[in-house]
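Good day; I would like, with your permission, to put a structural problem before you. A protein sequence and the structure tokens that stand for its backbone fold form the material at issue. Thank you for your consideration; the sequence and its tokens are set out here:
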Amino acid sequence: MATRFDPFQEMDRVLAQVLASDRASATMPMDLYRDGDHYVLHVDLPGADPGTIDVSVDDRTLTIRAQRSPRTEHDVQWLAKERPVGTYARQLTVGRGLALDQISATYTDGVLTLTVPVAEEAKPRRVEIQHGTPATSIAASTSAG
């Protein structure tokens, strides 16, 4: 049985694989939500070596980095190689009102979870109202006497 070989179709397939791999390695999917007085960030880092994960804060920029090393099997013929390798990096600019010095981080089942507390000064609070004589009437009665 004869098969037809189309070199352009094969080149298109290989190019699509390479471009998809580059896009996938450049992305770091995440979920972000607020839970009471904390923000919680879940970042997918499947296959990342836990020792390479780095979270840093510089001013108002939160940076997350991780490394996925290539597989080192020798003398194999790859049939598909779609899992991206290399360094993942993502930067987020965060607003004021977060306690960035109190971030906690865990890495479980390929998911990095950061918990960022809201700073005390940014939390909503009630202002207590003092009941008594208005200040203007006190000043007027003191100057009259």
Observations:
- The two ends are 117 Å apart (CA to CA).
- The mean pLDDT is 80.
- The helical segments are 7-26, 135-144.
- DSSP finds two helices and seven strands in the chain.
